[in-house]
Design brief:
By secondary structure, the protein is of the alpha/beta class. The chain has ten helices and eight strands. 39% of the residues lie in helices and 14% in strands.
Amino acid sequence: MPRFAANLSRLYLELDFLDRFEAAARDGFRAVECASPAAYDANELAARLKGNGLQQVLFNAAPGDLDRGERGLACLPGRERDFREGVELALRYAQALACPRIHVMAGLVPPGVERAGVQPTYIANLRWAAAEAAKQGVDVLMEPVNTRDIPGFFLNRQEHAHALVAAISADNVKVQMDLYHCQIVEGDVAMKIRQYLPTGRVGHFQIAGAPQRHEPDLGEMNYPFLFDVIDEVSAQCGWDGWVGCEYGPSRGAQPGGTSAGLGWMKR
């Protein structure tokens, strides 16, 4: 069975963020991921991880100004300085939290601009980030995101992501394969796992039920089957990464709602 990491930005919403570490450990998780942790003191986060026997396996670099609608900076011409500052901050947190990978959000294609027009900026930014991250043994991840949840997002398909990894040509740049996004955009998820996991370019998985992004046993995807596929292919190629649980509990922020919805993991 794959190793599961609790996404603390989406699970245990009834609790303050710092209290979610203990809740995740109590439910049997041994690893966590989250959105950008920069709002919290790195030493406090490290103490919560250590105190609960958890590993931080992923978090996002700064996404830009969310209130202005930004969803990452990597593809935005003219924002290179902001991008680099965000990556530098993320790498300081990665060092403090012993986190081996960071996700760099691609961002929205500016209005009136073709996707191909911003791709050189994206490639140059990722090459720079990869070189900086390599100094401390950290992987830089890119994630294809569906166009329904984030219209205009630069990166949507697995094929595009893997072509970009090849173009960037850095060993520590990998793809964050979110099976929820993959299902919505292109489907054929099991075959995508079989195609891409053996390449060594998949650094992390994420899961959620589709189409509503709740628990993975709710919706149209057969996750027990997909977990078996991950296990089978992992055994063949030696992949030993994590599967992040990036979904919104169907019970919302109801007390105990996340824990009550973990029957899928117990099974």
